[in-house]
């Protein structure tokens, strides 16, 4: 990302000073629902099949925090996909929310996060009648898409809204998929800069209308600047217009090319590609598995950058992830396939330990109490028994493995060692006196 890949997909942005406005007569005020911004938002709402659409300039972080604050009262309870972005953690700390987690089933023994079981969500809601909303991520960083209609039906049967972190799904309508709102969700945070050619930090919040437009307008400024960039706002409208014009064909071609890449990788390289035999996938997300080769995902990432001038979106121990968009060219795809076929990559039949599911940590105190407690940094190797004070978040994908207020056990340390962290990596924990007071209070 960003989805324009540094190319002038939207020529109107080539002269930014001409559209870098502020709130003056005729330009509108973002948080007042004024024209001409309102007409641009309504055009985006129509495209995505939503009742309302709010343009934002603080990325999906602002959109997601706005959605949570609009749907869950301060001090309330949020049922949340454990695979959600760290910005949800920030919202929960600010609003003093209690998270109740639902864990996606791993797709394979590499631990790749897969589908949330609808029955698991139903069971959690039955056990948590005080919950005000459910938040899930779809698609996730690896491209896995959740069953939004089924999850929405469950939420609505309990009288609560479904929120979707769809940061990576702005392009899906252009490849024949429905938006989360069309599938039954009530709010969806969408990054227009991640997969569309809009400028960095641009995002939209889509709404079914269950939560009022006035509530969204009142809530969003709490998490963003009072001087939103009109350049970013204009880029959202331009990207939407492009998506309804030339961009539609560009994205259809991208989806076809990614489908072909998945087959080519399986057939002509030592690597394998994640396909829809495992789970429903974003047609434009390419996830490559390195298990069974002579390199890890981190090593492949470094080699592609240093030897081939190719930057991947993210890497973990077993995978590399590529964001493909309508701005990519045949030459880009040919360069990638040429690199993956390079002779330095070979198959390697080595024993490995399957990555065990991440054990659910014990909650010692509230997320807010841990966040605002006295804290200290210690090496990972010394963290067993301590209480997490800041999200332990490999980035990307920006998904916390440990949340503030949770006790760190040795099994969590082993999990972190296996994929992301070294023993000397600093971990932020509550000072022992503070943690003991909270533990005794609990």
Structural features, described:
The strands form three sheets. This protein has a seven-stranded mixed beta sheet with strand order 1-7-6-5-4-2-3, sandwiched between helices. Strands 8-9-11-10 form a four-stranded antiparallel beta sheet. It has helices at 37-48, 59-71, 86-95, 118-127, 148-157, 192-195, 213-219, 230-244, 246-268, 297-308, 330-340, 367-371, 410-419, 432-441; strands at 52-56, 77-81, 98-102, 131-137, 162-165, 187-191, 203-207, 272-273, 285-289, 314-315, 319-323, 375-379, 426-430. The model has no long low-confidence stretch (mean pLDDT 91). With 442 residues, the protein is an alpha/beta fold. The longest helix has 23 residues, at 246-268.
> How far apart are the termini?
43 Å
Strand order in the sheet with the most strands: 1-7-6-5-4-2-3
* Count of helical stretches: 14
Can you write the helix and strand succession as a string?
HEHEHEHEHEEHEHHHEEHEEHHEHEH
The number of distinct β-strands equals 13
Helix percentage = 25-40%
General form: globular
Key terms for this structure?
442 residues, alpha/beta, 7-stranded mixed sheet, globular
Detail the topology: elements first, then pairings:
Elements: H1 37-48, E1 52-56, H2 59-71, E2 77-81, H3 86-95, E3 98-102, H4 118-127, E4 131-137, H5 148-157, E5 162-165, E6 187-191, H6 192-195, E7 203-207, H7 213-219, H8 230-244, H9 246-268, E8 272-273, E9 285-289, H10 297-308, E10 314-315, E11 319-323, H11 330-340, H12 367-371, E12 375-379, H13 410-419, E13 426-430, H14 432-441
Parallel strand pairs: 2-3, 2-4, 4-5, 5-6
Antiparallel strand pairs: 1-7, 6-7, 8-9, 9-11, 10-11, 12-13
């Amino acid at each position: 990302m960003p989805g324009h890949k540094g190319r002038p997909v939207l020529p109107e942005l080539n002269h930014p000073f001409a559209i870098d406005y502020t709130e003056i007569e005729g330009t509108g005020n973002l948080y007042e629902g004024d024209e001409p911004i309102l007409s641009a938002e309504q055009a985006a709402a129509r495209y995505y099949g939503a009742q309302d659409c709010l343009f934002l300039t603080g990325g999906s972080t602002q959109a997601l925090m706005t959605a949570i604050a609009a749907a869950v009262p301060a001090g309330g309870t949020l049922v949340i996909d454990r695979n959600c972005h760290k910005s949800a953690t920030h919202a929960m700390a600010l609003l003093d929310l209690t998270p109740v987690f639902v864990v996606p089933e791993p797709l394979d023994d590499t631990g790749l996060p897969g589908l949330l079981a609808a029955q698991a969500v139903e069971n959690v809601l039955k056990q948590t009648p005080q919950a005000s909303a459910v938040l899930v991520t779809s698609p996730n960083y690896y491209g896995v898409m959740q069953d939004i209609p089924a999850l929405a039906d469950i939420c609505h049967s309990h009288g609560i809204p479904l929120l979707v972190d769809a940061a990576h799904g702005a392009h899906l309508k252009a490849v024949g998929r429905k938006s989360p709102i069309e599938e039954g969700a009530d709010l969806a945070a969408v990054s227009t800069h991640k997969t569309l050619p809009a400028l960095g930090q641009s995002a939209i919040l889509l709404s079914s209308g269950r939560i009022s437009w006035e509530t969204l307008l009142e809530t969003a400024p709490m998490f963003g600047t009072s001087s939103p960039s009109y350049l970013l706002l204009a880029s959202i409208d331009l990207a939407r217009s492009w998506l309804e014009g030339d961009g539609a064909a560009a994205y259809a071609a991208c989806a076809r090319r990614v489908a072909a890449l998945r087959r080519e990788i399986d057939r002509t390289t030592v690597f394998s590609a994640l396909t829809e035999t495992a789970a429903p996938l974003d047609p434009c997300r390419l996830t490559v598995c390195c298990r069974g080769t002579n390199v890890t995902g981190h090593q492949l990432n470094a080699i592609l950058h240093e030897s081939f001038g190719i930057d991947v979106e993210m890497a973990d121990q077993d995978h590399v992830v590529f964001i493909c968009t309508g701005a990519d060219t045949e030459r880009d795809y040919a360069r990638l396939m040429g690199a993956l076929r390079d002779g330095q990559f070979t198959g390697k039949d080595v024993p490995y330990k399957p990555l065990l599911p991440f054990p659910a940590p014990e909650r010692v105190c509230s997320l807010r109490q841990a966040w605002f407690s006295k804290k200290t940094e210690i090496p990972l190797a010394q963290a067993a028994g301590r209480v997490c004070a800041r999200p332990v978040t490999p980035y990307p994908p920006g998904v916390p493995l440990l949340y503030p207020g949770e006790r760190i056990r040795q099994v969590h340390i082993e999990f972190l060692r296996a994929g992301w962290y070294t023993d000397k990596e600093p971990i932020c924990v509550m000072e022992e006196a503070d943690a003991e007071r909270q533990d005794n209070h609990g």
